[in-house]
Amino acid sequence: MTGIEPSARQAWLDETSYWTPKWLVPSAWHEHSPFAFWLINALRPQTIVELGTHNGFSFFVFCEALKRLGLRAEVNALDTWEGDEHAGRYDESVFESVTRISTEDYPELAVMKRGYFDDFVDGTPDGSVDLLHIDGRHRLEDVWHDFNSWLPKVSDRGVVIFHDTAEHKKDFGVWQFWAEVSRDYPSFQFVHGHGLGVLAVGTEVPSAITEFIAAANADPDRVRATYHELGARVSATAAVQRRLATTTQERDRARREVDDLRTSTSWRFTAPMRAVTSKLRRAPKP
Questions:
Q1: What is the domain count for the chain?
Q2: Residue 250: predicted pLDDT
Q3: 20 belongs to a structural domain
Q4: Taking the CA of residue 75 as centre, how many other CA atoms within 13 Å lie in the half-sphere pointing to its CB?
Q5: What does DSSP say about strands 187-190 and 110-114: parallel, antiparallel, or unpaired?
Q6: pLDDT score for 242
Q7: Helix (H) or strand (E) holding 162
Q8: C-alpha–C-alpha distance, residues 21 and 13, integer Å
Q9: Are 18 and 230 contacting, i.e. CB atoms less than 8 angstroms apart?
């Protein structure tokens, strides 16, 4: 335990860090939601662009933070919703689920754009994006391409965050990208939850962000441990919800099977035999 209470305020922590996401859809991003809540409160972005949304967890976290804080903004989710070699392939139900939640819960914030990231670069004004989240294909050349393509779109206040900066499996190259790019801008990296890199690329980044980066680099172990702990709580909550959902589904399936059995021909045909057996069981023994 870190010993930091929700009421305590640091340059890198406030009450929003303790919020629990409303939508705990399956994601490798669960453990970064506490920092994401804090980041939205500190940055107060007017335009967010997310490259790679999948099930929508981080997208929903951004929207939820803005909604709870009463902030007006536009959150753009860019994805093909087809999957790739890193996220895996998935069917249309994923896109439909993200669409339903964003439409029902965040109609004034959420904007879904289906297609390849490059399809939307030219239509995005230069210097308009306050928060850019890059979480697409994870090969080294892909991350560099996404970053270089979208960097002109980032505002003077802009921050870019990258997921999987601590993931070294297969052909993941985000960690290599991060080792290079983090030397060029004020930055900080969380190493839990597959890693999250925070890059302050703007020339007029809010003081809350610059103070966070300075404080985090001055005491990285404490900052990382705190957000690791907070993120683990979110992951644990998500795991409990999954188990409850599985139990409920199994119970409902068993009930349907019983109902199907009771309406089946064989059940009706054997009803007289079961009735006789029941009477014999209740009959007094000689």
A1: 2
A2: 53
A3: no
A4: 27
A5: unpaired
A6: 83
A7: strand 154-163
A8: 17
A9: yes
Q: Which residues span the domain enclosing 154?
A: 28-218
Which residues, in sequence order, are CB contacts of 131 under 8 Å at separation 6+? 39, 40, 43, 45, 47, 48, 49, 62, 158, 159, 160, 161
pLDDT value, residue 170: 84
User: Each residue of 208-221: pLDDT tens digit?
Assistant: 999 999 999 999 99
Where the chain has pLDDT below 50, the residues are 1-3, 6-8, 267, 276
**Category of 88 on φ-ψ map: left (φ > 0), alpha (ψ -120 to 50) or beta:** left
Residues 135 and 255 in one domain: no
Question: In 8-71, which ranges are continuous DSSP H helix?
Answer: 33-43, 57-69
pLDDT on residue 8: 46
What is the separation, in whole angstroms, between the first and last Cα of the chain?
Answer: 69
Tokens of 132: 């850019």
171 domain-assigned: yes
Is residue 13 in a domain?
no
Tokens read off for 70 = 């009463």
Query: What b/e string do you get for 78-92 counting C-beta neighbours within 10 Å, with b at 16 or more?
Result: bbebeebebbeeeee
Do residues 266 and 177 share a domain?
Answer: no
CA distance 69 to 57: 18
- State the pTM of this model: 0.84
The label of the residue with tokens 């939307």 reads: 120
Based on the fold, state whether residues 208 and 254 are members of the same structural domain.
no
Dihedral sign, CA of 106, 112, 117, 121?
Answer: negative
Owner of token pair 């060029």: 184
Q: Which helix (H) or strand (E) holds 113?
A: strand 110-114
